[in-house]
Design brief:
Layout: H1 2-30, H2 35-48, E1 58-62, E2 65-72, H3 75-86, E3 93-100
Parallel strand pairs: 2-3
Antiparallel strand pairs: 1-2
């Protein structure tokens, strides 16, 4: 009778351990990607893109939300950086603070160039 009781307790303990292990595996599969991994993934994507690799774009991630900061030459590059960040696993959202460099404004018509004016 003692052996039966011991066997019963051992079987119960083993079942409990197996349930905990299965639950742990299930939670591990659903656990979010950590912020450092997300940031590394976004940086990798930006560097791998020949259009964006030469621009210093800062990447910050908090709770899966990515913030991009920097400066590019064209609006299309800004949009491409955001699209690439959104495609990285674990990204919950993107705040795109990348600025598009403005081209120098042309002189208004009728304003003489001082270097060519007569004296």
């Amino acid at each position: 009778m003692n052996a039966g009781r011991i066997f019963h307790h051992a079987a119960f303990a083993l079942s409990f351990v197996l349930v905990l292990a299965a639950e742990s595996c299930r939670n591990a599969e659903k656990s979010p990607v950590n912020d450092a991994s997300i940031a590394a993934g976004v940086r990798h994507e930006l560097i791998a893109n020949s259009e964006l690799a030469r621009y210093p774009i800062a990447v910050d991630v908090v709770a899966g939300r990515v913030t991009l900061e920097g400066r590019v030459d064209r609006a299309e590059q800004r949009e491409e950086a955001e699209m690439m960040a959104r495609g990285v696993d674990g990204v919950e959202g993107v705040s795109n603070r990348i600025l598009v460099a403005s081209t120098p404004a042309a002189e208004p018509p009728g304003v003489p160039d001082p270097s060519t004016s007569e004296r």
